[in-house]
Design brief:
This protein has two domains: 229 residues, no CATH class; 38 residues, no CATH class. Helix content is 35%, strand content 18%. Strand 4 and strand 5 form a beta hairpin. The protein contains seven helices and eleven strands.
Length: 286
């Protein structure tokens, strides 16, 4: 039976494509005449999705003097954007899927319960985005861990190999990464595993029967060699409920900022505290 292949707008004529910032500069600038340019598209309205494989940060030294991010996406191809990675990820959280911001407050609390000092993962169960420097640091390169199958680290040089798409694999290389990137990656993958198990446990409780994920493609997200069981909390049906408690302050702050922005009013933290105090009083009197 012929193996079903995914449609993609990424290069696929060679068995393996290797990418790094240097290779991107060499082969993807418009004067190079490279045949790879047929896969390049300029998109300043690019929206992050599970089809994104990797996103390189070029903010300090933009490609062609203007492109601050280069994204490898199965739906769109090689995307060049004049917007930086922080803005692109910010749009994903703020505009494209706003409810994920609410989940982000819970995710940070989960990370704290695992004694993780920095947040490197945006975990969504079946896919997760991994930041090389921690997503609270702003502009950095990102990887979709569900689109990757292998990882290697030599000194401070890291490479990630993608799933096979139309017979080709893409190897994304990065230099000058943090020395303990293997540990950080393991923590990020484990963080997603905790989110996954917490969701499945809670759903099983609601359904009154065990609920499991369907068959998953091989990827770094489900590679057990990266599971750090020693930092995993007990993920029973009450775990996510306990993690959700106490974040009303964060949610209220989030919607308050959103409302002020929509009304074009300057954000004032003292006004927020006053509104939060009255909201608590109203809830108490009900």
């Amino acid at each position: 039976m012929k193996k079903r292949q995914l449609k993609t707008k990424l290069p696929y004529k060679e068995k393996t494509y290797q990418w790094s910032k240097e290779i991107i500069r060499e082969k993807l600038h418009y004067a190079s005449g490279s045949e790879l340019l047929q896969y390049v598209v300029h998109m300043d309205n690019y929206a992050v999705s599970a089809m994104m494989m990797a996103m390189y940060d070029f903010d300090k030294d933009p490609l062609e003097g203007k492109y601050k991010a280069v994204i490898f996406d199965q739906n769109h191809g090689i995307v060049l954007s004049t917007r930086n990675t922080r803005q692109i990820i910010g749009d994903f959280l703020n505009n494209e899927i706003f409810e994920y911001q609410l989940g982000l407050a819970v995710q940070k609390k989960i990370a704290r319960s695992m004694n993780l000092n920095r947040y490197h993962a945006l975990s969504f169960n079946k896919f997760a985005f991994f930041s090389l420097k921690g997503f609270t640091n702003g502009k950095t390169s990102w990887l979709n861990l569900s689109a990757l199958t292998e990882f290697s680290l030599h000194r401070r040089n890291a490479s990630f190999t993608s799933v096979e798409v139309n017979g080709s694999r893409h190897i994304f290389c990065f230099d000058k990464v943090v020395a303990n990137l293997d540990k950080v990656l393991s923590e990020a993958i484990t963080h997603n595993l905790v989110v996954k198990r917490g969701l499945l446990a809670y759903e099983s409780k609601l359904m009154g029967r065990p609920v499991v994920n369907g068959r998953e493609k091989k990827s770094l997200l489900n590679d057990s060699q990266y599971f750090a069981y020693e930092i995993m909390p007990k993920c029973d049906a009450n775990y996510l409920v306990s993690m959700s408690k106490g974040i009303w302050h964060d949610i209220f702050l989030l919607f308050g900022k959103r409302l002020f922005k929509l009304l074009e009013i300057n954000w004032n933290y003292e006004d927020y505290k006053e509104a939060y105090k009255h909201n608590n009083r109203i809830n108490y009197l009900r």
